[in-house]
Design brief:
The structure holds 3 protein chains of 3 kinds.
Chain A: H1 17-21, H2 32-54, H3 66-87, H4 98-129, E1 135-139, H5 146-158, E2 162-167, E3 174-178, H6 188-192, H7 195-203
Antiparallel strand pairs in A: 1-3, 2-3
Helix pairs in contact in A: 2-3, 4-7, 5-7
Chain B: H1 2-27, H2 31-56, H3 59-85
Chain C: H1 2-25, H2 29-58, H3 60-94, H4 106-110
Helix pairs in contact in C: 1-2, 2-3
Classes of the chains: A mainly alpha, B mainly alpha, C mainly alpha.
Chain lengths: 204, 88, 112
């Protein structure tokens, strides 16, 4: 199956300087070792930062003790060696862009939290009245990357009346259990509102 | 002082909910129902551990909660796989 | 600060309870997953946010490390809970459990 080139989307942060940094462009054989080392280094940095956050306030070197720093480095390099191949496939570099993190936080505290509160009141209503009209519907939001599909599937699961059952890897079709079916063949907007647009901005 | 007490009371309330879920775990007609109940209990246990860690001022319980959250997720995935294709 | 913590604890307790009750009120696996996943995720988030508020009010190195661990636990729950429920729902469907009184079942029609 053909996936779109990683840095060719029209979003502003895929152009300009970030387009130069984005290592997905380094496809040729000569660049393969550079790419491999860069992937390993980025994975190590991510894991080590999480370890440092978890063990803050343990000693005197900065905030950390010497044992935690050495042990954390050893563990991080082992984890990075084991997992760096998996992490950066299919456009994972795009998720390192800080602008996307900002958009993700805006998405999280804005439309997502609102929809989640609504979802809980909806469940409360159905628990009390017992009024359901369930079914499994199919729609295609047109997402290409793994990260985007995962984000949308999880968002759908946590928002009113819907639960993702399956995602077709080839076509990107979503199969969703809908607790109150209004249309047998819905458009993406009927099931999950503005989420596909947000997910495209955050993850694609 | 009163803050710690309220956290502990909240943890006790969540423990009551765990008992309610255990009922579904016991009577659930299909294995899938039991798996759903177990998943719910796991989430509640993580919340209870975080609340108790703050109430008793024991940081180690919160570390256990983090590990429990990740391991219970892996456990749920394996249960799901078992439901899907049986013991292979 | 204290008031905020009590509000979060109360909201968390209410929605977690809703999730536990939903396990008994709904008729089949999929609808139970709806209730259980949404409500316990939302409720646990608020319970953990109460701990974040408590740790922030307490301050110092103990309070800050409390906040760090609570926030990490929140992130893990938010990531793993919907994924786990999705895995369970898909496994249940592939194991052949029919949705209760479904008006339409597109996944069955595809035959996977």
């Amino acid at each position: 199956m053909v996936r779109p080139g990683p840095c060719q989307s029209n979003l502003p942060w895929n152009r300009g300087l970030w387009g130069l940094i984005c290592l997905d462009e380094l496809k040729s054989v000569y660049w393969a070792p550079v790419r491999r080392v860069a992937e390993l280094a980025a994975t190590f940095a991510l894991v080590f930062v999480v370890y440092l956050i978890l063990t803050a306030f343990s000693g005197e070197i900065g905030l950390w003790s010497r044992e935690e720093l050495i042990g954390g480095a050893v563990v991080s390099i082992l984890v990075a060696l084991a997992s760096f191949r998996l992490l950066w496939e299919r456009g994972g570099w795009r998720l390192l862009n800080p602008l996307r993190w900002v958009m993700f936080l805006v998405y999280l505290v804005g439309p997502f939290l609102l929809a989640m509160a609504k979802a809980n009141l909806d469940v409360a209503y159905r628990v009390i009245t017992g009024r359901i009209n369930p079914g499994i519907v199919r729609f295609n939001p047109g997402l290409k990357t793994d990260a985007g599909r995962t984000l949308l599937a999880n968002s759908i699961t946590l928002t009113p009346g819907t639960l993702t059952l399956d995602v077709d890897d080839e076509t990107g079709d979503f199969y969703v259990h809908w607790i109150n079916v209004r249309q047998v063949d819905p458009k993406p907007e009927d099931v999950c509102g503005v989420f596909p647009h947000w997910v495209k901005v955050v993850a694609e | 002082m009163i803050g710690e007490l309220s956290l502990a009371v909240a943890a006790a309330v969540l423990l009551g909910y765990v008992l309610v879920c255990t009922l579904r775990l016991a009577i659930g007609p299909t294995p899938a129902d039991r798996a759903v109940a177990l998943d719910t209990i796991n989430t509640l246990v993580v919340a209870i551990m975080v609340l108790l860690g703050a109430a008793l001022n024991l940081m180690i319980i919160m570390d256990v909660a983090l590990v429990y959250a990740l391991l219970s997720f892996v456990g749920t995935l394996y249960v799901a796989r078992y439901l899907q294709e049986g013991l292979r | 600060m204290n008031i905020l913590m009590y509000v979060f604890l109360a909201v968390g307790a209410v929605f977690n309870g809703l999730g536990a009750v939903a396990l008994h009120r709904f008729p089949d696996v999929y609808t139970r997953l709806h209730g259980a996943t949404k409500c316990t995720t939302f409720g646990s988030i608020f319970s953990i946010l109460a701990v974040v508020v408590y740790g922030a009010a307490r301050g110092g190195s103990v309070g800050t490390s409390m906040v760090i661990r609570a926030v990490l636990a929140l992130v893990f729950l938010l990531l793993t809970n919907p994924t786990g429920s999705h895995a369970l729902a898909r496994a249940a469907h592939r194991a052949g459990i029919k949705p209760f009184r479904a008006v339409v079942d597109r996944l069955e029609e595809v035959g996977k």
